[in-house]
Amino acid sequence: MKRAAIVALAALFAVTLIVLLLDLPAPAVDLPAAVGARMADSGVAHPVTAVLLNFRGYDTLLEIGVLLLALIVVLAVAPREGVAALPRADPVLQTLARVAVPLMLLAGVYLLWAGAFRPGGAFQAGAVLAAAAVLLHLAGLAPAWNAPGKRLRVGLAAGFLVFLGVAAALLAQGTLLQFPPAWAGALILLVEAALTVSLALILAGLFLFLS
Amino acid sequence: MSTGTIFACTGVILFAMGVAGVILLDHLLRRILAFNLMGSGAFLVLVGLGQRAGHPDPVPQAMVLTGIVVAVAATALALALARRLFALTGGYVLPPGDARDGDG
Predict the structure, then answer these.
(1) What is the ipTM of this complex?
(2) For residue A193, what are the domain limits?
(3) C-alpha torsion angle, residues A35, A111, A154, A147 (rounded to 10)
(4) I need a surface site. Which of A33, A43, A197, A210 has the fewest CB within 10 A?
(5) Do A10 and B20 touch (CB under 8 A)?
(6) Scanning every residue of chain A, which has its alpha carbon at the shortest distance from the alpha carbon of B57?
(7) What are residue B93's phi and psi, to 5 degrees?
(8) For B3-92, CATH number?
């Protein structure tokens, strides 16, 4: 009875929202045109990267902060059972991992570089690199992570700290995260490189600290 | 009806399925999956509505990209908490008392 009522309510919600969506007025603000008008000042050539790192940079700054926070909480609640054993080695998977991981590293660096002018960027690069680390672990070639040492901690926090440092340095000229057009390209590449390292380590850590 | 509108409507349906799942399912792993379904539906609505004029809008796309990464982190956090609960109680179901006292 209760079950049927909840399903009916959810269906009613969906139907109402779809009816409203079909009758939506045109947007009052033309955001693509606004982005296009300032692309020359952004320091990159791809609009999504320009929005992520320049026009709405504080979203990305808070995002990497949220990720770091999530990892810290995962570390706090993860069970500590000494050094975890490697998964059973499977020769086929090991061979695949040995072939695929160097290519994944290459693809990760390419994605980071390509983000300036086509789809790509720090998030995609970090995800590919983290997947490479998880693949190495699942193939039995790399152990799971226990407590992070000093170097790993620096790597995990680097993206957030570099981004925060750039934001603080830019505060000197008045506005938070407003890149001067002449420096925007170099600063975005610096921030994205640090973000890639940290995102890869954090995403890999979310898996490897728990396994 | 443009492609973007179809994406947005699909997103609404996914979101509604996710809401029903979060309320109805007891197993925490399924509840986390349903929550992810809600998130995916919301992302699809944002991206779909952004491109209903025919050309993609970079602002919602960047927001959804940010959202996906945060959703991955939140899911990992939820899974870590679920494992902690399993270690403490031996099950993946919230104790019934807490569900009524807290906000679930």
Answers:
(1) 0.83
(2) 2-208
(3) 120
(4) A33
(5) yes
(6) A32
(7) -120, 135
(8) 1.10.287.3510
Average pLDDT value for residue range A29-54: 86
The domain tally of chain A equals 1
- Give the C-alpha separation, B72 to A192, whole Å: 19
Query: Which residues on chain A are in Cβ contact (under 8 Å) with B74?
Result: 70
Q: Which amino acid is at A27?
A: P
Contacts of A26 in chain B (CB under 8 A): 53
A121-130, A160-169, B17-26, B87-96, range with the lowest pLDDT: B87-96
pLDDT digits (tens, 9 = 90+) for B20-51: 999 999 999 999 999 999 999 999 999 998 88
CB contact under 8 A, A60 and B66: yes
Q: Where are the domains of chain B?
A: 3-92
CB A132 within 8 A of CB A97: no
* Chain B nearest C-alpha distance from A174 (Å): 24
Triad B81, A164, B72: Cα angle to 5°: 30
Cβ–Cβ of A31/B57 closer than 8 Å?
yes
CB A28 within 8 A of CB B41: no
Would the pLDDT of A7 be above 90? yes
Please answer yes or no on whether A74 and B76 come within 8 Å at the CB atom.
yes
Read off the pTM: 0.86
The residue ranges of DSSP E strands in A9-80, in sequence order, are: none
pLDDT tens figures, A175-202: 777 888 888 888 999 999 999 999 999 9
